[in-house]
Amino acid sequence: QVQLVESGGGLVQAGGSLRLSCAASRSIFSINVVNVVDWYRQAPGKQRELVASITIGGSTNYADSVKGRFTVSRDNAKNTVYLQMNSLKPEDTATYYCRARGANYWGQGTQVTVSS
Predict the structure, then answer these.
(1) DSSP-assigned states of every residue in 3-47
(2) Closest among 24, 22, 28 to 6, alpha carbons compared
(3) pLDDT confidence of 89, banded at 50, 70, 90?
(4) Is the terminal CB of the chain with fewer CB neighbours within 10 Å at N or C?
(5) What is the pLDDT of residues 29-49, one digit of tens each?
(6) Distance (Å, rounded) from C-alpha 81 to C-alpha 74?
């Protein structure tokens, strides 16, 4: 079992930036079935959506809505995956979750609120 803890959310004005962290209790990618870590978000009344992913090889993928504004990265030494969010928009307001795909481990989420 791996515990994932997100942090870094908060209230920011439109155009601002936040960096979210997903800290794991141990190396995520050392788990055989985990080869991707995802960032999801869920806004009130909406379905959870996949925002960004990073693979064990370091490849990244982004939803069209965040492409060019968000960057996913990882620090293996710290067992942490990051989501750098720039040029934030009010529609980015949501609870953000990280997930270790394959094992389906989820964090508890961190709230991001972008004011206009």
Answers:
(1) -EEEE--EEEETT--EEEEEEESS-GGGSTT--EEEEEEE-TTS-
(2) 22
(3) very high
(4) N
(5) 888 788 899 999 999 999 999
(6) 4
